[in-house]
């Protein structure tokens, strides 16, 4: 199959065709790790698109008794050329099908196109071209350094969207019908792109799954992380100094950066200590949407027990106290006792673990999602649809619940994958309800086709929210 950069060989199966590890930018090596993405030079002959790409340098992530490999993928698979996309399509036949571009999560430090959850066969089966992408993570992707552009991982996503604009017709996709989708950190990147002038014209619709429109660091917070990273490496916080350091060292210092106190006189830590990396922006995306592509339709929502992922598998949920809940709230509020008291009033019978999880989930995703909904409703009335995901996974002895990431198997219609079940599986030992996967996946497909997922748009008067449970 021919693309503007050269010919690619893929695989054909029951769900359509799959092309893997196609470069959308040049390999980020040496000093280029801290530069904007450069165009790929293309290739001669036929490129093998049947095998997965290397991944961005990243540490291993441990979620206690829960196996999160289907979400994170295999971790760091070494290789220079990892700024690549995978494409799932019904057929590379020149047709004009709707396109979904998916940006993975992972706290800005982990994740890749190799994750089993992002297979995408169900989208191709249902007539949608799915593009998944890798982007720079951690130090190369998001550390703020003198002499380097900020938010290099975000610049990578922009480069991938330009690749889609210029290339997706070769894969049977319509460049004028692109839906940009992100989950977790990827969803926060989507929020930022909704406020980015350079993103205008690159996508027509957007889906934000458990992200935040208020998840960016201030320049002061980013500088604090940069100084800590430079101190751990024994160099100056400049792109020139960091360019001489191998990727292995960048991965090694991430644990030393975890848990930095990023609270300042003017800002709380939007990631409540769970990651030392995020976007760095002078203004939060929810407050600067007028700068971006305002004509984009938006589907946005969260899970009802987001914080459970960070407490239940690690054995912290049942042992939590009110003091623990207040300490969590203190990372994002000036009066944590009042916050926890309000949460308790709204949740009769809630345990300290429930309150700690609620405080964590609201700080990470809930408050920033609400701000995005409010801002979008003012800016583009009638074009925002809101959902809430409430299906409770029976993992970890039935306690995981509607935690962060649990919606993904239903969106991708892979909830029956054996890797998601069993003693350590994300969905637990019980079979997942097939009607939930059909309904949620179907809504995402409908939104990609028409901008209407099947329920009324949100407005301040009716506050329509579709619940999946």
UniProtKB/TrEMBL annotation:
Top-level EC class: hydrolase
Name under which the protein is recorded: Carboxylic ester hydrolase
A Pfam short name: COesterase
Region feature Disordered, mapped onto this chain: 36-60
Source organism per UniProt: Umezawaea tangerina
Database matches in InterPro entries: AB_hydrolase_fold (IPR029058), CarbesteraseB (IPR002018), Carboxylesterase_B_AS (IPR019826), Lipase_GDXG_HIS_AS (IPR002168), Type-B_Carboxylest/Lipase (IPR050309)
Family indicated by similarity: Belongs to the 'GDXG' lipolytic enzyme family.
GO molecular function, one term: hydrolase activity
């Amino acid at each position: 199959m021919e693309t503007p950069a050269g010919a690619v060989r893929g695989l054909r199966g029951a769900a359509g065709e799959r092309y893997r590890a196609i470069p959308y930018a040049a390999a980020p090596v040496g000093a280029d790790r801290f530069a904007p993405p450069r165009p790929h030079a293309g290739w001669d002959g036929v490129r093998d698109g049947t095998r997965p790409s290397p991944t961005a340098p990243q540490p291993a992530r441990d979620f206690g008794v829960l196996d999160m490999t289907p979400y994170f993928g295999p971790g760091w698979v070494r290789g220079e050329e990892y700024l690549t996309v995978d494409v799932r399509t019904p057929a590379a036949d020149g047709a004009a099908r709707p396109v979904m571009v998916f940006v993975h999560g992972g706290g800005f430090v982990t994740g890749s196109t190799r994750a089993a959850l992002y297979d995408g066969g169900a989208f191709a089966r249902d007539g949608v071209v799915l593009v998944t992408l890798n982007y720079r993570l951690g130090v190369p992707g998001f550390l703020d350094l003198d002499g380097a552009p900020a938010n290099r991982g975000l610049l990578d996503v922009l480069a991938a969207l330009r690749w889609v604009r210029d290339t997706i017709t070769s894969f049977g996709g319509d460049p004028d019908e692109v839906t940009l989708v992100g989950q977790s950190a990827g969803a926060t990147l989507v929020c930022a792109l909704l406020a980015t002038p350079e993103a205008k014209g690159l996508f027509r619709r957007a889906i934000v799954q458990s992200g935040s429109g208020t998840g960016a660091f201030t320049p002061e917070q980013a500088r604090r992380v940069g100084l800590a990273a430079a101190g751990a490496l024994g160099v100056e916080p400049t792109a020139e100094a960091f360019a001489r350091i191998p990727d292995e060292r960048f991965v090694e210092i991430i644990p030393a950066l975890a848990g930095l106190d990023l609270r300042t006189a003017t800002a709380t830590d939007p990631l409540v200590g769970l990651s030392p990396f995020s976007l760095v922006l002078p203004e939060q995306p929810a407050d600067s949407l007028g700068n971006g592509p305002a004509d984009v339709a938006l589907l946005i929502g969260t899970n009802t027990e987001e914080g459970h992922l960070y407490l239940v598998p690690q054995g912290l949920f049942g042992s939590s106290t009110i003091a623990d809940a207040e300490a969590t709230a203190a990372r994002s509020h000036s009066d944590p006792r009042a916050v926890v008291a309000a949460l308790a009033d709204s949740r009769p019978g809630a345990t300290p673990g429930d309150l700690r999880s609620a405080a964590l989930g609201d700080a990470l995703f809930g408050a920033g999602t609400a701000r995005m909904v409010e801002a979008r409703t003012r800016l583009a009335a009638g074009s925002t649809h809101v959902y809430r995901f409430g299906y409770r996974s029976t993992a970890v002895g039935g306690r995981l619940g509607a935690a962060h990431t649990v919606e993904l198997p239903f969106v991708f219609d892979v909830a029956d994958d054996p890797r998601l079940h069993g003693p350590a599986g994300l969905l637990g030992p019980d079979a997942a309800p097939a009607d939930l996967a059909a309904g949620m996946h179907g809504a995402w497909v409908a939104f990609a086709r028409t901008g209407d997922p099947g329920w009324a748009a949100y407005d301040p008067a009716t506050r329509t929210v579709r619940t999946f449970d």
